Amino acid sequence: MNDGRPKVLIIGGGFGGLFCARRFGKLDVDVTLLDRAACHVFQPLLYQCATGTLSIGQISRSLREELADHHNVTTLLGEAVRLDPTARQVTARRPDETTFTLEYDYLVIAAGMRQSYFGREEFAAWAPGMKTLDDALSIRRRVFAAFEIAETLPPGPERDGWLTFVVSGGGPTGVELAGQIRELATRALANEFHEIEPEEARVLLFDGGDRVLKSFAPALAGRAADILKKLGVEMHFGVHVTDVRRDGVTVTRKGGGPSEDYAARTVLWTAGVEAVPFARHAAEVLGATTDRSGRVAVNPDLSVPGHPEVFVIGDLAGRDGLPGVAENAMQGGLHAAACIRRDLSAQPRKDFRYRDLGSAAYISRGHALLQAGPVKFTGLLGWLSWGFIHIAFLTGVRNRFSTVTTWMASIARANRSDRTFILGGSGHPEEPYTWESPVHQGHHSTRDGSERVPDSAAG
């Protein structure tokens, strides 16, 4: 410890980091919360933002605003890039590529996971994941622009490609996205176009398992599959998406056999997650072991072996099969804060015990699944339960009331009130008019996974 107040540094402003920071209110410590976006995002509702039901402000809130009454908590914008456990320092990078250093007495790593492409990072150019606000806005742009572009094309294969949507991964996020796109096509957009019939849009869901929602009871998963079929989602199991390109995907069966190509201009990736780069770096310099996805092996109290001053919580904590859900992160953040508080009062730490409060998945209006121990709800009751649970965890009273109002309007009119998307409108070369993600402009993937320079930039 230094001579002043203990310094607690929290990396990540998600559920784990936010709940941890809140716990230090009125305690004689200095807390710094470092986040690469300086806002808290309610990730379970990202897909509702992506498909036009909710706005950014309804699922996110500035961390400064959220923690304004916690006078011993400082919020900083930056991305953690390097850890020096000997000096107890973390180096962070600002958006302009300059860096600054933060010292700590206690470090809580709550940086979360990112989308995994299983070593094929080039897929990200054409298949955005669903982990950040940027991802949600990218998906919104791609989904709504696909219908708009199809409206300008004559009937034929090119138009069909724009009206075909591929979802890779049959977990909760994949199921939610697939259901929402079909619902969007058959309800909200059904009567708004003249040249196309949005109801004819195809949604293809691919998964390597034998059913959707493998973390749910088989009966619930079967019910979800039935609802998806009624919506018109085409489900393919026992297959992997082995190539993603600008105009489609290649799918290969797990047991072997010929590959199949599908023409699609919109591909969404929800097939896996992996640790963010800083978490992998931290594990290496701390001498901690990790699993294949980069989760860090931790002690029963969530501290890193050999480093009682460092905690790893949420998705990154690799212990006892802890699930990658918001509730695990919340409980982990509260537990890490409790351990630090007990240290400061010279009391022994307690082991972390995760309390499973259940799982939920939204499929379409009036249909959701809720599983909490022996309690299992589907249909309208599951949908209402799902809504109340998510509203309860939204940060800020304003967000809750705003979200409830929007959902009530959606229930009554089956519309989507936040469908605005940005294609780039300044006319400058640095901001081209395109449906592609800005980070990937100029890097077009070829069939072999390499990258080529677009014709406009060659020579």
TrEMBL record:
Disordered: region residues: 432-459
GO molecular function, one term: NAD(P)H dehydrogenase (quinone) activity
Record-annotated FAD/NAD(P)-binding domain positions: 7-333
Keyword list, A-Z: FAD, Flavoprotein, Oxidoreductase
The keyword Flavoprotein is annotated on this UniProt entry: yes
Any one GO BP annotation for this protein: aerobic electron transport chain
Pfam assignment, any one: Pyr_redox_2
Composition bias, Basic and acidic residues: 445-459
Co-factor requirement: FAD
InterPro entries per UniProt: FAD/NAD-bd_sf, FAD/NAD-binding_dom, NADH-Q_oxidoreductase
Family: Belongs to the NADH dehydrogenase family.
PANTHER family membership: 64 KDA MITOCHONDRIAL NADH DEHYDROGENASE (EUROFUNG) (PTHR42913:SF3), APOPTOSIS-INDUCING FACTOR 1 (PTHR42913)
Protein name per the record: FAD-dependent oxidoreductase
Source species taxonomy: Bacteria, Bacillati, Actinomycetota, Actinomycetes, Mycobacteriales
